[in-house]
Known about the structure:
The chain has helices at 91-104, 119-128, 147-152, 158-161, 164-174, 179-185, 193-203, 208-217, 221-227, 248-258, 274-277, 279-295; strands at 18-24, 27-34, 42-46, 68-73, 112-117, 134-138, 235-240, 263-267. By secondary structure, it is of the alpha/beta class. It has an 8-stranded mixed beta sheet with strand order 1-2-4-3-5-6-7-8, sandwiched between helices.
Amino acid sequence: MDSSNGFSRTDGPPEGWAHRVSHARGMQWHQLHRAGDPRKPHLVLLHGTGADHQSWQAILPHWPRDWTLRVLDLPGHGASPAPLRGTPMGVQEVGGSLAELLLAEQSPPHETILIGHSAGAAVGLAAMRDQPWRLIGLAPSLIVPPVLFTLALGPFAAPLLLSKPSLRMLEAACRLPGVLETIIQSTGTELSSARKAAMADLLLAPGHLEGALRFMSDTALEALLRESRAAAARLDLLAAVDDPWIPYAQVQEAVRRFLPEARLHAWPGGGHLFHEQQPQASAAWIEKCVRQLLAD
């Protein structure tokens, strides 16, 4: 994959997969697609803030070969460039773009299930709330941020943070010894050295950090949650009890407050990236959940 986001791949898609580039509402999406039986589940996989499609790499081999899988890079992440400056790209805008993309490509209404990790779950919620699709959210980032965070990335401070000098300083800070290692360790997940190296390369890619920060600064999560209550019955959420980034008790409170009909399940451990640390067990849980949803 190549893009103006600065992150490129010299290797082509894996055997059995195709690389696609799609456009919707002024946003470009790079995706890997594996076609399956159209009568079987159709999964759309959405990574979290600051990640890319590699977040799902370890889990993909554990699902049936006749399932259709679509693994996307969110706009501003990985190989998908951010839209022009001044174009909003928060979860609601990205979710609306995704919904338009899936409708244009005629995703089957019953078999399509969005699988979102962290902020990818919020994007999935924004995409499916007015559509018939279901959503499975892993480590779902559905917690309304504190006031200080909102102020730091609000309309007054965000332009300063996203200015070129500020971004250069942030990128330089990320290159200091131990900084990225500390960020990765703060997830509470044990990852291989190869995976850590790939994450570091991604975070340091030109344009990636800016895309992630724009995505966060443009997001109005509480508004999305308030507008999504009617879709809650089509949500299954899986949160690790030891997630230091998205504490389980706060997910419980968000579900109680905004999405009372959603089903929240507890995962015994593994931190924020538990699906990467325990791909086989996570895939098995998702497969069981998918089969139950489609049997309803």
